[in-house]
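Researcher: Structure prediction, please.
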Amino acid sequence: MSNQIYLRQRKLNLKLPHSITVIGCGGTGSWVALFSSLLGIKHIILIDPDNIEEHNLNRQPYHYEHIGMPKTEALKQLLLQLRPKLNIRTYQIYATYETLKSLNLRTDIIFCCTDNHQARLEVNKYCKEHNIKAVYGYCYSDVVGIETPEEVEQTTYFGTGYTQIPQYLFPNVQVAILMWLIALNKVNYTSFECNLSELFSFNRGE
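Model: Predicted structure follows.
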């Protein structure tokens, strides 16, 4: 790998984690993983139970030839195209406390990007017990946001899925960027939620 790739980045004195885990490799997690590879993270773990479907292609970086493949394997292909020397492990499983425990998962940071609230609770439990930093980002309906670990424990309702226009038009790169800024301690880790329609003064046509 060329030493020139990170020449400018070195001047920022970023304290990058040695390894990261992305749970949920869809609309948010796929971009978190891509940014991780571009930043120079050397060890990446990808966890997601799903396969690529055609409707994923308008907001996720996958290709037509990936349709039908596990998201984890398709994403691994994309990351290795960007950084061939990456060390990547993939698991096509649901993230639960027990599955993470069975993997004996050891990682510096977990980016939890699943839209399943029960999974977030179980990831949170595992992270607390093993002293692993976790960042929780989400997108549902026309809302994007960040949850702290404390808020994950308190939340009793978590959206109804992709039902509004903005989720079908825009990749969730804004959440992925914010999650990485939190991971790098460049912004305070506080809960955040924003309606995209309000943020962009977006008026739907009749």
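Model: Residues 160-166, 202-206 have pLDDT under 50 and may be disordered.
Researcher: Thanks, that helps.
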